[in-house]
């Protein structure tokens, strides 16, 4: 670790943020990793501060005051929620990125991480083994903001030398935080409902295959791309990232190995349209060749790890999360 590294995580209470904060603190130490989110009074999280990513002045002040050298910008409105308020989604997703890129340029930050998504693809993209370069044509405001954001990252790198790195993340599965506002959330929620009720109402059709990743793999990917030497990063928009692909019926069959009585009812809603527009699997050979990405968890290993983690939680349902963290889930 570099003693001068001071990391600021924006969106540290979210699904990625919670695990990334822990992982980065294991590497750099808690005092070198500032966790921040829009929530006040997180006295349970050490080295935490409340920051609204749309408040550029405060963000700049914090960066200067604490000598921040790297920012991980994780705050965003995801695909399904974004469709409910397109302007708010665009504003949050774009304005926060431009603000962070400007600060990175002006304050000469070492590096920035900003996640893109498989949502940059659309119905005219290749469905299987979707390549890095293909038609994108995203059909959600979230996907449009991610595609535009990729170009902004490339622009700031080319024009100002800002070392911003990005991954097109697939659906992420984890036990440590609820999911908020995404289309791929069913793959997390099914575990909770299977344990609690042995019953799950799935908002996607049983055969809808989507690219997914266990969170531990995603965190490894983020840490790996961020620690790769700059010359290894050949894609300055965002790298395709894949790992596993499955449909709700595949996941249900895997979960039935642990909970044989699980009943799943399929009731596709507006999220089905979004899922239909996304690829089923990703060609992430660029990430594998350029900086050595490799996933470790297949679906069986992911499910086993999920049950292991959820066993450690006394009341394994969405109820065990603090109220403020489930507000986005409840909104969908
Ligand atoms: C979503 O479902 O919106 C996200 C994503 C694929 O970026 N999980």
Automatic annotation (TrEMBL):
Record domain NAD-dependent epimerase/dehydratase: where: 7-242
Highest taxon listed in the record's lineage: Bacteria
Family (UniProt): Belongs to the NAD(P)-dependent epimerase/dehydratase family.
Protein name per the record: NAD-dependent epimerase/dehydratase family protein
Organism: Mucilaginibacter aquariorum
């Amino acid at each position: 670790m570099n003693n001068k590294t001071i990391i600021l995580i924006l969106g540290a209470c979210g699904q990625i943020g919670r695990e990334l904060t822990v992982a980065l603190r294991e590497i750099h130490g808690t005092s070198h990793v500032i966790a921040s989110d829009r929530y006040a009074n997180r006295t349970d999280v050490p080295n935490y501060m409340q920051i609204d990513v749309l408040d550029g002045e405060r963000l700049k002040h914090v960066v200067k005051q604490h000598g921040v050298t790297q920012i991980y910008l994780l705050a965003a409105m995801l695909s399904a929620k974004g469709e409910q308020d397109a302007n708010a989604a665009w504003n949050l997703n774009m304005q926060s990125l431009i603000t962070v890129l400007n600060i990175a340029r002006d304050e000469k930050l070492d590096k920035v991480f900003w996640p893109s998504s498989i949502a940059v693809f659309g119905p005219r993209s290749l469905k299987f083994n979707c390549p890095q370069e293909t038609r994108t044509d995203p059909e959600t405001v979230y996907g449009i903001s991610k595609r535009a954001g990729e170009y902004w990252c490339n622009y700031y790198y080319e024009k100002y030398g800002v070392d911003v790195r990005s991954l097109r993340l697939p659906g992420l599965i984890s036990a440590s935080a609820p999911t908020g506002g995404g289309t791929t959330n069913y793959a997390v929620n099914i575990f909770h409902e299977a344990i609690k009720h042995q019953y799950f109402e799935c908002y996607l059709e049983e055969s809808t295959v989507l690219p997914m990743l266990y969170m531990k793999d995603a965190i490894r990917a983020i840490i790996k791309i961020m620690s790769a030497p700059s010359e290894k990063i050949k894609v300055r928009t965002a790298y395709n990232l894949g790992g596993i692909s499955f449909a709700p019926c595949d996941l249900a069959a895997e979960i039935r190995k642990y909970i044989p009585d699980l009943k799943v009812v399929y009731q596709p809603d507006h999220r089905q349209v979004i899922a239909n527009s996304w690829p089923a699997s990703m060609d992430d050979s660029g990430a594998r060749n350029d900086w050595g990405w490799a996933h470790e968890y297949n679906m069986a290993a992911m499910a086993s790890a999920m049950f292991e983690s959820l066993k450690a939680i006394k009341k394994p349902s969405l109820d065990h999360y603090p109220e403020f963290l489930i507000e986005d889930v409840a909104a969908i």
